[in-house]
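BUG-249 | component: ligand-complex export | severity: low

The export step for aspartic acid jobs runs without errors, but we want the raw record kept on the ticket for reference. Input record follows.
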Amino acid sequence: MFTHDETHELDAAVMDGATLAAGAIAGVCHVRRPVRAARAVLEDGAHVLLAGAGAEAFAREHGLEMVEPSFFSTEARRQQLYRVRGTGRVVTDHEGASMTAAVPATPLDEDKKFGTVGAVALDMHGHLAAATSTGGMTNKRVGRVGDSPLIGAGTYADDRTAAVSCTGSGEMFIRVAAAYDVCARMAYGGATLEAATHAVVRQSLPAIGGTGGLIAVDRHGNLSLAFNTEGMYRGHARGTDAPSTAIFA
Ligand code: ASP
């Protein structure tokens, strides 16, 4: 993902549902694996969210691998930026779709899908965890922070309810506190995981133009992989069962 200024700014978060400990970093471009930096913030414990130069210094101090920003550049993403930026509008990766004639080489149109990687897990002791890592959105303004590193928006885990990781038009996920809302619907309203995720993905988000989806697992091991877009790359595995993957609905 490139920002409007053709730079990179990566965001990531991780949360431990057993303790509600959380760590996140925003706006870094030299940290090879941003989610590990988020974990280092969690383990350090003093803060929850570090941004920009301070986050990079923290990552360096904690011995994380650092790279040149060009490490994150791909030609396809650069061309995607040029297509979108040429319109003079600030549009999301998602909205850029209407402006490209490019034939997608992957099952989902690269201009229509979100590029975030999320993970949620329930372990044998009943503990939940969630993590999200992203380059954000193509042509985003420099300094823009999405939902992914914001605890409660793009990432949340609480052993009493569920672990949730979101992908999509971040601004809307922030505005509905999407990940936390899933857990709140379960805790306060007694909703099942399925009902809670569908309320967020099919009602709350579309009501304000939010597109995307989320992956979630609850404390009983129920899964929800909900989205309101054409598809979402996703996979899951349970115990020693063979893992399964899917793209479309
Ligand atoms: N939610 C991410 C963001 O707004 C983008 C994505 O999921 O692809 O930064």
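Assignee comment: Attached the raw record above. The longest strand covers residues 21-28.
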